[in-house]
Amino acid sequence: MKTKLLLLLFVFCFLVYLPLIFAEEPSPEQKTCAPSTSPSVNPFKLEKYRIVPGTLFRIETDKDIFRESDRVSLTLIYKTENYRKTKRIDIKKVHLKKEDNSLFIEATFPEFREINEIKTQSKWRGILLPYKGDIEICYKNKEEATAIFLLPVKIPHVKWAYIWGIVIVILSFVIISLLKPNPIKKQIGFDKGKDKSMEEWKKLSIWKKLFLYPLNLAITPLGTYSISRTQILVWTYVTIFGLIYVYWLTESFLDITSQVLMLLGIGGSTAIGSKINAISKTYEVPPKYLNLVERKRIPRLNDLISTEGRPSIFKFQMLVFTLLTAYMVVVEIAKNYAFPQIPENLIALMGISSAVYIGNEITQENVGEKIKKKIEEIEKYAKDNNKSFSTHTDIENLGSPEVEELRNILTSIYS
């Protein structure tokens, strides 16, 4: 109990501290350093103050002061060795770009390997906070009047953005494990000692349960892992990772594209269709027949590619397409700091795969009807031979082949 309270306290403190990381400083104000008589006002403004190394950044100019004929050079200035030393590096590939009557300076920020010494700036910068620096703009107009302006910048480390994205995902696993969503629903009808499913679940190691607990949110009415609900879970975690990763690097929210919303919609529709189909096929087995077997079954990972213990090509197809698409989306987010435009053909392929899966589920033989039919055959046999079938012991002693067939069906579901 103490361990759980400490974990919850840690999670609470972390969630409280996380916004403070980004609110550590107000948006930096632009500074003028050693200006000359012209211009007297800073004509430059960064579009974003948080700049990822190796990416393109833009500086907006005041068109009433800055002209296309004016010249600028950019230099990155940053501190190292606990702010004791100052380093300078020229920013190359600087050019002007006109856009909607506005004039911008565009340049590529130095790669992190070029400013690797910035890691000595402070012990916690890079891990908990972005590094600090200034972009020095040396401005010279056509009258040869010169001024130097400093634009403060924050420089995040891509590695730590990736690590924090993974940490938040794992943290969600921990939170879910503390809530302990129960994968085993009590089955009414089993005699005492016949339902051993919870004992089987408890036998799993704590680490295995940690990573299985989120999947417990994707369980069918029959107590198996649902491929359609797992699909929703996968896209939820891709979105969580993307939001943290992009916000850490750019201090802006990740734009969720219409294609990703369509994929979430496909997963949601498939899950609803599967649930309706599963409920329609559910049959309440009388207790005397349930007790022909012991209930030991817990949700298994192979439920994601099998139906009633048999491999399913339709589930396998859905799982592979979902994981491959999710992998490609994560890679694109890592490269471009945004959700990619997913090709329409790939979305259509996911939709067709889900439709085929639902169609196969609907047309499959109803397991509830199979059980009901076997029970009717057993009871007819017992009546024809004037034998009792009031308890599971009586049913086991009937000697009917249908009893063994029913036991096999129930074993595939409960054991």
Describe the structure.
There is one protein chain. With 415 residues, the chain is an alpha+beta fold. Helices cover 45% and strands 16% of the residues. It is built from twelve helices and eleven strands. The chain has helices at residues 2-22, 158-179, 197-202, 206-212, 227-250, 258-280, 287-290, 313-336, 344-363, 367-384, 392-396, 401-414, and strands at 31-33, 44-46, 56-61, 71-80, 85-91, 95-99, 102-108, 131-140, 146-155, 306-307, 310-311. The longest helix is centred in the middle third of the chain and has 24 residues, at 227-250. It is elongated. The two termini are 33 Å apart. The model is unreliable at 19-38 (pLDDT under 50).
The CA-CA distance between the termini, in Å, is 33 Å
The number of helices is 12
Structural class of the secondary structure composition?
Answer: alpha+beta
The run of helices and strands is HEEEEEEEEEHHHHHHEEHHHHH
Shape, per Cα inertia axes: elongated
Could you tell me the mean pLDDT?
78
CA radius of gyration: 32 Å
Question: What is the total tally of β strands?
Answer: 11
Helix content: 40-55%
